[in-house]
């Protein structure tokens, strides 16, 4: 039985590593898109230089509004998804046993980290509007 347990733990560890790698790749792609948007926003000043400041103003406002809307929608979706799972995640706390005492601290540290991130997201909507 210990061999099966070790194999399962190794498979889970590999899946965790692959999931983290995939998410890191997506976040890197998002970062590149943010850099491209930043460059496009710098290029908007050419409209004002050519005597068309209204074009710069309108495009800048559209870009910022669309960016905030899509970002807020994504974050609200993630917040709702993980807040709905908090109870289930909490029940996943390591039970009493040989390694449970060691795992207990790490579990609650990670759980607290998720809770703090969700609280920060919960306050973000009102902060973005002020």
The chain-level mean pLDDT equals: 87
Distance, first to last CA: 58 Å
SSE arrangement, N to C: HHHH
Biggest pleated-sheet summary: none
Task: Give the % helix.
Answer: over 70%
Radius of gyration: 22 Å
The global form is elongated
Given the structure, what is the number of helices?
4
Structural class by SSE content: mainly alpha
Descriptive overview:
With 130 residues, this protein is mainly α. The protein has a domain at 67-130. The chain is 89% helix and 0% strand. It contains 4 helices and no strands. It has helices spanning 2-43, 45-49, 53-91, 100-129. The longest helix is centred in the first third of the chain and has 42 residues, at 2-43.
Write a short abstract of this structure.
The chain has 130 residues and is mainly alpha-helical.
Top keywords for this entry?
130 residues; mainly alpha; 0% strand; elongated
Topology, pairings included?
Blueprint: H1 2-43, H2 45-49, H3 53-91, H4 100-129
Helix pairs in contact: 3-4
């Amino acid at each position: 039985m210990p061999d099966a347990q070790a194999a399962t733990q190794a498979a889970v560890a590999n899946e965790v590593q692959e999931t983290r790698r995939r998410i890191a790749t997506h976040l890197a792609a998002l970062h590149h898109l943010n850099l491209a948007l930043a460059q496009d926003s710098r290029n908007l000043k050419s409209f004002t230089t050519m005597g068309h400041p209204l074009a710069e103003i309108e495009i800048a406002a559209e870009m910022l509004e669309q960016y905030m809307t899509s970002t807020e929608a994504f974050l609200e979706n993630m917040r709702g998804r993980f807040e709905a799972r908090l109870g289930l995640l909490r029940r996943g706390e390591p039970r009493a046993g040989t390694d449970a005492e060691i795992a207990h601290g790490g579990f609650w540290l990670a759980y607290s980290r998720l809770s703090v991130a969700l609280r920060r997201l919960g306050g973000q909507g009102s902060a973005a509007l002020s």
